[in-house]
């Protein structure tokens, strides 16, 4: 489908600053005027105790549609929470049906939305979502969905969001949000155009994301093979090569999950290589001022601790002595709601003066000349270690990594000089892979921005769709 940009003569002032100019035969309306005339056509999910964990049952007859459907489009029916028909009758005002729009009400991604497809049971939206049924005589549901995407992306919702515990939008404010409306026939044409164009962009993005996944897996495999000795480092004139070791160069490590290691390497439990220390515990009012503080996120999100951390804590001189953050220290995520976030490691490559670290972390401090910091960076972030933790971990109310379990972690240990060579080779090889990944991510970001721009130009009338339905 073809399009052209409208001339200034074809446009008029919308009367709404953030909307700007619109085509002369379009109008500005509000969401409350395009919602279905049926009762409960624009509602939020059940409040508080009206829908909580005790209401969820394994064989329930009614699905609960949560905000991750609105934000990510995730709708795996076999993993949805369910409630009984009896409880559904008490919260029926929050029912959501096929072709309704589900909008995220609360959280960092507030305002994102998706259209509910046909499902095999009745459903309600959860308390962190809104449900909008569109009046089909006035609007195309998909067109309104595109309008909502435009409104989210251009920052309009930021003007009405409340920021108490979490960012949130209210039903009342959303009712009064301005939207741009051509007649229904033009809406249909715009929807057809955007569906075609966004599908093309999404297909390209999907292929690039698949390539990123392949590169990420290749990177993980490369690191695992290097730090466990499955390959050896060979210096070349233009960098490094990693060459597979022959079978006769290997020996049984004695650790099932570690497998074979080079004959000249040692295998040591972590307890013989250094000391462990849990992090600092402080009340909430001690944070936000004082001295540098390494947070859970600093470890979880990074293979090495950032040189400059954002966190601050009011730590004492003794705190800064006990919970110090020195070059060569390795930090492990210790506790979380699920095992998916446990056992991630991040190595400190440069001492952070006067810093302390979070209570949800464990610090491993190696004995002198046992572990090179660069080798630690890659070895302890390796997926093999996390698989060991997850397999051995005891789950109570929260997933937790104990010092005893961490002390029992097996470490494949080459000589210190070889550790340095492995680090240099991995920096060279992994750096190349990450460069490719970053280029792909930049391309994806540009594609997403182009897609958002196209949606905005279409739903505000900046472009005119030329093809007829």
TrEMBL record:
One of its GO terms (molecular function) is DNA binding. InterPro entries: Restrct_endonuc_typeI_TRD, Restrct_endonuc_typeI_TRD_sf, Type-I_RS_S_subunit. Keywords: DNA-binding, Endonuclease, Hydrolase, Nuclease, Restriction system. One of its GO terms (biological process) is DNA restriction-modification system. Gene3D superfamilies: Bipartite methylase S protein, DNA methylase specificity domains. Transmembrane segments: none annotated. This is Restriction endonuclease subunit S. It comes from Clostridium beijerinckii.
């Amino acid at each position: 489908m073809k399009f052209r940009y409208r001339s200034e003569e074809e446009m008029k002032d919308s009367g709404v600053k953030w909307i700007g100019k619109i085509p002369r035969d379009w109008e500005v309306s509000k969401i409350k005027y395009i919602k279905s005339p049926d009762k409960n056509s624009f509602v939020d999910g059940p409040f508080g105790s009206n829908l909580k964990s005790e209401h969820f049952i394994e064989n329930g007859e009614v699905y609960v549609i949560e905000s991750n459907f609105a934000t990510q489009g995730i709708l795996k029916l076999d993993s949805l929470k369910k409630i009984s028909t009896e409880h559904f009758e008490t919260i029926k005002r929050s029912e959501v049906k096929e072709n309704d729009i589900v909008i995220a009400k609360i959280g960092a991604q507030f305002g994102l939305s998706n259209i509910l497809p046909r499902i095999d049971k009745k459903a309600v939206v959860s308390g962190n979502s809104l449900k909008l049924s569109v009046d089909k005589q006035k609007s195309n549901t998909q067109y309104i969905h595109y309008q909502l995407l435009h409104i989210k992306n251009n920052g309009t919702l930021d003007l009405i969001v409340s920021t108490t515990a979490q960012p949130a939008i209210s039903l009342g404010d959303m009712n009064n949000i301005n939207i741009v409306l051509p007649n229904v026939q033009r809406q249909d044409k715009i929807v057809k155009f955007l569906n075609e164009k966004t599908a093309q962009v999404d297909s390209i993005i999907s292929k690039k994301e698949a390539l990123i996944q392949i590169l990420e897996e290749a990177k993980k495999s490369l690191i695992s093979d290097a730090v466990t000795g499955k390959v050896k480092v060979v210096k070349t004139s233009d960098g490094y090569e990693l060459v597979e070791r022959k079978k006769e160069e290997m020996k049984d490590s004695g650790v099932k999950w570690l497998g074979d290691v080079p004959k000249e390497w040692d295998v040591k439990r972590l307890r013989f290589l250094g000391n462990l220390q849990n992090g600092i515990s402080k009340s909430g009012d001690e944070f936000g001022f004082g001295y540098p503080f390494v947070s859970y996120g600093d470890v979880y999100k990074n293979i090495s601790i950032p040189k400059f951390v954002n966190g601050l804590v009011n730590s004492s001189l003794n705190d800064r002595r006990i919970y110090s953050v020195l070059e060569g220290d390795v930090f492990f995520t210790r506790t979380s709601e699920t095992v998916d976030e446990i056992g991630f490691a991040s190595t400190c490559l440069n001492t952070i003066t006067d810093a302390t670290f979070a209570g949800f972390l464990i610090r491993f401090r190696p004995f002198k000349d046992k572990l090179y910091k660069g080798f630690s960076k890659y070895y302890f972030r390796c997926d093999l270690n996390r698989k060991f933790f997850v397999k051995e971990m005891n789950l109570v109310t929260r997933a937790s990594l104990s010092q005893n379990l961490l002390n029992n972690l097996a470490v494949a240990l080459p000589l210190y000089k070889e550790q340095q060579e492995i680090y240099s080779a991995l920096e060279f090889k992994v750096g190349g892979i990450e460069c490719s990944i970053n280029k792909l991510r930049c391309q994806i970001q540009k594609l997403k921005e182009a897609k958002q721009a196209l949606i905005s130009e279409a739903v505000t009338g900046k472009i005119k769709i030329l093809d007829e339905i």
